[in-house]
Amino acid sequence: MDALVDLLGGFATALTPVNLLYALIGVALGTAIGVLPGIGPAMAVALLLPITYGLDPVGAFIMFAGIYYGGMYGGSTTSILINTPGESSSVMTAVEGNKMAKRGRAAQALATAAIGSFIAGSIGTALLVLFAPVMVALALTFGADDYFAVMLLAFVAACSVLGSSAIRGFASLGIGLSIGLVGLDPTTGQNRLSYGIPQLADGIDVVIVAVGVFAVGEALWVASRLRRTPAAVVGVGRVWMGRADWRRSWKPWLRGSFLGFPFGALPAGGSELPTFLSYILERRLSKHPEEFGHGAIEGVAGPEATNNSSAAGVMVPLLALGLPTTAVSAVMLSAFQQYGLQPGPLLFEREPELVWGLIASLFIGNAMLLVLNLPLAPLWAKLLHIPRPYLYAGILFFASVGMYAVNASALDLLLLLLLGALGFMMRRFGLPVIPLIVGSILGPMAELQLRRALQLSDGALTGLVTSPLSIGVYAVIALILLWPAGRALLRARRPRSGGGPERRTEPADS
């Protein structure tokens, strides 16, 4: 009850005209910057830090929150329209969203992303208000073995569920894990796979990997087939979602809302892993599994809802523990320190106006994003009518500018082109791209948690199964790996056990 009273006080702060203006500026700038390939909300907040020196802390953080949510929605726009994630958490949206756009359903994909973002963001923020203390207590009970088990589940699911071949999936995962190894060893400090290049000591930024493999790889692939394949006439489609679209989207919206928040609230959380798990879940539960890989609306609704719900969850460790778990929260932590504030339990007591005004602004920013982006969905979709040579030349230009702007490094441009060539070759030989992205994002985190678990157990492998959660996750992994073999064995025995003159064999699953 006290939390609801504090939240009402936060709305009184956030609904003042000047703070509403800051929120509107934040969501507008965040959306505009998120649409540019490679420039995500973290960079937008970092760029805006110097111009907020003259603002009061409440207004500055309300603007930052608007940029955060707006940047995530802008990333989904480029994922859907041109298969170019604006940030790593938008990678899963590109899988089905871009296929929907190519089928003339870009407006529906953008609409379900906008509505799902609003619903999930509102639910996630409500959960932040009601269950933040519980989530912090739960997160503190997670051990290194639990984190490693969950990440291993993501690896196995990526290779076994996505793509036409598990072997090709594991090959793609191996490439991604190798990319994640580049840089300093987190334990010994030794350089790995850096070949004496000092700029590689910090590793390869996952945004460079995502933009290179997706955007540049897609542009090269289209260019190689430009003269052999006629340009598809892509219609914008209806501006509004049809009844079937609503029926197929509302459950993924709710599932994504409740899946993303706990992962965002974990001290080692984030939005990449839950968005991937959301895609896997929707693919398993969908009544139209044959549409996945060809533009299933559930594959957009679920991950986008999860993405925005986890964004609210990220505020739990930041505000309650002072622990940043994403790039955006790390930049916001530096902003707190800029104002002489230290996030943690005492922040709620010392700066209640700031904390609850920030939380209330998340509700307001979500509503602003919905009102701002739903009317723009058909306008964004018309980008697909640009002739392909100009469109993909523009993608290469903005991707290159975005990557160079991050560190002003020519090496980043070279890495972008090399990873683009890698993405092209993967498309040429049928290797799925998602396991590579998952491996490069989660590989370093999984390595860190594995080493911690083994150090705590003095190198004994039993240290990886010290809790019921880790044991349960490993059981799920075993089920995923053994299920195809068991299903094939059952299919092989079924004709012999049927008996009688009528014999037929079922076609193998794709």
TrEMBL record:
This is Putative tricarboxylic transport membrane protein. The lineage of its organism: Bacteria, Bacillati, Actinomycetota, Actinomycetes, Streptosporangiales. It comes from the Bacteria. Keywords: Membrane, Transmembrane, Transmembrane helix. The keyword Transmembrane helix applies. It holds the Pfam family TctA. InterPro entries: DUF112_TM (IPR002823). The chain crosses the membrane at residues 20-49, 61-82, 109-140, 152-184, 204-223, 258-281, 311-333, 354-377, 389-422, 429-446, 466-486. PANTHER family: TRICARBOXYLIC TRANSPORT PROTEIN (PTHR35342). Residues 20-437 form the DUF112 domain.
